[in-house]
Amino acid sequence: MAGISWGPDEAARLAAIRDDLAGVSTASACQMLIGLGWRNAYLRGLLPLAPLGLGRRIVGRARTCRYLMRRGPEGPHDPVARRRSAEIALIEAIEPGDVFCVDALGVPTAGIIGDILATRLLARGAAAAVIHGAVRDAPYIKEVGLPVFAAAVHPSHSGRDLVAIDYDRPIDMAGAQVVPGDVLLADDEGIVAMPLDLAEYVAAHGPAKERLEGWIRGKIAAGGSVHDYYPPSPEKEAEYARETGRRVEHPPHP
User: Are strands 162-167 and 148-153 parallel, antiparallel or unpaired?
Assistant: First the structure.
């Protein structure tokens, strides 16, 4: 059932870029990825239940679970079968820093996780949970403290409409393909998913883009014209270098 290609080398590579990647907004990362031809990296409409706060970002490895629509009525509650179900198996396999990612087909009428499973994910060390669908117990999830991104809230349990069938396989997450082991970058604007090599590219060049755009915003606030500063003309690039001691980067394609 499960399959994820990840070893000590990949873990070390992610650890090496985590802080730098967390210095990049999803807006900047999305723009950089589009420039490389990756047009569908943003998970549309999946927003945090509670704001993370300005400038706070989450970086983690994607672990995925896929649901399908239920074909017939639910059977009687079976605790043994539940322990073997795909979503519970994945929750119990979560490692510190992982992001629990569920393709629940965008269905708004079945809560995939509530406060109890959110608590277990937090105890396992999950960095966040991302649900392409709904969650339940939303007020209590906020108390748990695990960052949770979802498209909707609904008080019903998941089995009302859906059944989990597989985990650690590629899934669709609100218009973006997410592969187990992808790196997720999340903030209050949403989530971007990318392979590890592209995450390294964004981490290498994104912080410089953030610094430059902060400087540009200050110049615009002081009365500067977008014609001169956005993007900066060669003269304004020289001004940036004089004032900051940094050159404007024009990153190469990876």
Answer: unpaired
